[in-house]
Design a protein that fits this description.
heterodimer; A: about 300 residues; alpha+beta; 10-stranded mixed beta sheet; 7-stranded antiparallel beta sheet; 7 helices; about 30% strand; B: about 100 residues; mainly beta; 4-stranded antiparallel beta sheet; 3-stranded mixed beta sheet; 9 strands; about 45% strand
Chain lengths: ~300, ~100
């Protein structure tokens, strides 16, 4: 494992060797759920039961819905509803988005040339680079790349504590553009200003299955079912499953949270391991930060 | 044959033309207020058993919205946080709903 430090105290990258032989030697990561006023942290043994109920897959690319659903139902006794808030809705609003890590997370207002507008979520990974889902920066049904995306760090109702910046340069992997293929649903916005220097930026990591298995993952973003996607909402759970390209979880999300960071809090260091993309009644999921995703993020984070 | 790994090749918006290719089924509609007038800027999102992109669309000036590239399945149309309509998508055509 190697670590890079930069001017921002929030930048830490962990790049793990791909050799599976090293996995057994890797110590379990010490991670914490964010401490948010009003949020009730999941009970540890219930989360552990959910993790244990579904073994982590290393050779399966697609979800196995029945097993995932069963695990969630057994562990939490949930009804299956056709929405991506799974079970009781215990998401909480972030009261002060000027604090870390919330200020690194941005509301996105996405404007396509054909007049269609969308809302999504992004997060800083560098001075000018905002990471998000590929479907936020390239929509096959809307003519491809957006005309522009307004990036609003830490939006809190009508308050824009860091103003906003309009981005017009976008990045996405070829697999998404030629598809769309959800395995490649990640992308970036490159801004014309160093906003990331003011708000800070997330670290990111390639973690192996053993390290992901017992970690508490956090997601915070701007859901459309609350406050018209103007307030940041948080939720956390232990991951349910990891496939080679995807992470699966029952962390509650809603439309508008596409592009949110799936991140770990490692003793105060926020390290992203995925990008939230997809909601479902059975389980939600996002793109896993693999070595290839990590390499693209490194390439994009220093672009101007 | 193109390998899956090629899919991670980075593409820049400055170097590629926009593409338009609609495919699959779509759900389109209009959101109207209690008086029947179209609602501009309402946040519309979809959910399904199979999973959908967690993005929300704002209705246009005429209250319309449209989601494309949908696989067969049962979808719920949400306006704000409220589930409004259920659409059972069976074939590659446009399904129109009034909300």
């Amino acid at each position: 494992m190697r670590e890079h430090a930069s001017r921002s105290s929030e930048v830490h990258e962990y790049e793990l060797p791909e050799s599976s032989a090293l996995e057994a030697a890797m110590p379990a990561l010490e991670t914490q759920v964010e401490d948010v006023p009003g949020y009730t942290k999941p009970i540890a043994d219930v989360s552990a039961a959910a993790a244990a109920a579904v073994p982590y897959e290393t050779d399966v690319e697609d979800l196995r819905p029945d097993r995932v659903r069963d695990a969630a139902d057994v562990a939490f006794g949930r009804r299956v509803l056709l929405e991506s808030v799974i079970g009781a809705d215990d998401r909480v609003a972030i009261p002060d988005t000027t604090k870390l890590p919330w200020r690194m997370i941005c509301a996105l207002r996405i404007r396509f040339a054909n007049g269609r507008n969308y809302v999504g979520t992004g997060w800083f990974i560098g001075p000018r680079t905002v990471m998000t889902a590929a479907h936020c920066v390239f929509a096959h049904d809307e003519g491809g790349w957006p005309r522009e995306i307004e990036v609003i760090p830490g939006l809190n109702g009508t308050v824009r504590p860091f103003g906003s910046v309009v981005g017009k340069k976008f990045r996405a992997p070829k697999g998404w553009i030629d598809g769309p293929d959800s395995d490649f649903d990640y992308g970036a916005i490159v801004l014309g200003e160093d906003v990331g220097q003011r708000v800070g930026y997330f670290g990111y990591a390639v973690l192996n299955n053993a390290q992901l298995k017992s970690t508490a993952a956090n997601i915070s973003g701007y859901p459309a079912d609350r406050d018209s996607a103007t307030k940041q909402y948080f939720h956390a759970r232990t991951l349910i499953n990891a496939t080679p390209k995807r992470l699966v979880y029952d962390i509650d999300t809603f439309g508008g949270q596409s592009g949110s960071p799936i991140y770990l809090n490692m003793n105060g260091q926020r390290v992203a391991v995925g990008i939230h993309t997809t909601g479902s009644s059975r389980s939600n999921s996002g793109t896993r930060i693999t070595k290839e995703v990590f390499d693209n993020m490194n390439k994009w984070r220093n672009e101007k | 044959m193109r390998s899956k790994r090629d899919g991670d090749e980075s593409v820049s918006s400055e170097n590629t033309l926009a593409r338009v290719h609609a495919a699959g089924a779509s759900i389109a509609g209009v959101v109207r207020g209690v008086g029947g007038d179209p609602v501009t800027g309402a946040l519309v999102s979809l959910s399904s058993d199979a999973g959908t992109s967690d993005i929300a669309q704002q209705t246009a000036d005429d209250g319309t919205f449209r989601f494309g590239h949908l696989a067969p399945g049962k979808y719920v149309v949400h306006v704000g946080g409220e589930a409004k309509k259920t659409v059972n998508v069976r074939e590659a055509r446009e399904y129109y709903v009034k909300v």
